[in-house]
Description:
The protein has helices at residues 23-37, 55-68, 85-99, 106-121, 152-169, 186-202, 216-223, 227-230, 241-253, 261-271, 275-288, 296-319, 324-337, 346-353, 357-369, 388-394; strands spanning 44-48, 72-77, 174-179, 206-212, 231-235, 344-345, 373-374, 380-383. 53% of the residues lie in helices and 9% in strands. It has 3 domains: 23-235, Rossmann fold, CATH 3.40.50; 241-318, Helicase, Ruva Protein, domain 3 (Orthogonal Bundle), CATH 1.10.8; 323-394, Winged helix-like DNA-binding domain superfamily/Winged helix DNA-binding domain (Arc Repressor Mutant, subunit A), CATH 1.10.10.10. By secondary structure, it is of the alpha/beta class. 43% of the residues are buried. It starts with 22 loop residues before the first helix and ends with a helix. Strand 7 and strand 8 form a beta hairpin. Helix 3 (85-99) packs antiparallel against helix 4 (106-121), helix 5 (152-169) runs parallel beside helix 6 and helix 13 (324-337) crosses helix 14. Keywords: Heme, Iron, Metal-binding. Pfam families: AAA_16 (PF13191). GO terms for molecular function: electron transfer activity; heme binding; metal ion binding. Residues 1-22 are annotated as: Disordered. This is Cytochrome c domain-containing protein.
Amino acid sequence: xxxxxxxxxxxxxxxxxxxxxxxxxxxxxxxxxxxxxxxxxxxxxxxxxxxxxxxxxxxxxxxxxxxxxxxxxxxxxxxxxxxxxxxxxxxxxxxxxxxxxxxxxxxxxxxxxxxxxxxxxxxxxxxxxxxxxxxxxxxxxxxxxxxxxxxxxxxxxxxxxxxxxxxxxxxxxxxxxxxxxxxxxxxxxxxxxxxxxxxxxxxxxxxxxxxxxxxxxxxxxxxxxxxxxxxxxxxxxxxxxxxxxxxxxxxxxxxxxxxxxxxxxxxxxxxxxxxxxxxxxxxxxxxxxxxxxxxxxxxxxxxxxxxxxxxxxxxxxxxxxxxxxxxxxxxxxxxxxxxxxxxxxxxxxxxxxxxxxxxxxxxxxxxxxxxxxxxxxxxxxxxxxxxxxxxxxxxxx
Length: 397
């Protein structure tokens, strides 16, 4: 069939042509926005799940929903070695620019922008040369004595409180979206929790919507014990059969193409319901098929091609980031976890490698920092990428 008309879109954070299976999460967020608009207390949201389940796509869709309601929004992607001061400043600057034209008192908006600038510039060392100092691009003087103490927790609480005040004045809200939230530095995690706690107590119209790997709730809980009650956690998992079929059928039918039932069976078995894999197998199957309806035979022909592409782009690119010691650790995990990629005990990995657990801690910790594995629970380790264990078992070298 015509590859130009191929509707499927496997890509990192790329919205699929049919966002299937996420109606519950979208409806829950609409309720959050409506409750806040009516002055009701509401918790910030945290989306968790493995890689490839569509967390970033859903995060972007939630942001679109907030924008459609006239909210100010900003989005950042956390990085392990980066302070949140700069990205949060940029995100809030964007949110305030969206709300600014609707605010009658431009002087008060300018005051808050001055606070944002002061918060951002606090990251600059006092001894840094002028040319080396980062500037947030805000055309107002930096405020003094507000959000500039150098204590991240104090400063972030003051900053978000002031920003929420601008939104409250016009009967709107601000939503700060944070992707890869598990990579935020510990002090910044504590600051976010403290700020969300304060905003919730005030009933302020500002929420944080985060997305991260399955261990993100544990990261937040380790920072502040009350985080379990502070956020509403939504687990994003693979699609059920009905949703996976809709993700394939709906875009195809818009191109006057359909699938035979056996083809849908084969595609669900291959993709295992993971949204990224659904798109990857769907795209290759479309290109292989000669005509509509697409058959199970087409899927059989397409599967090796799709698996080869995933082996290079989805699995291989991650595997290549690991050191020899880390690869040895992951191969041991794969042998113990089997095709299902089950979580395994760190002690079992040590036994399998004939090593003391303490000697493997550097490799394990590095794999966690690289986002390749996560601590499923105390003493347990699992892959962040679905089917990664299967990939390693098929590629032993």
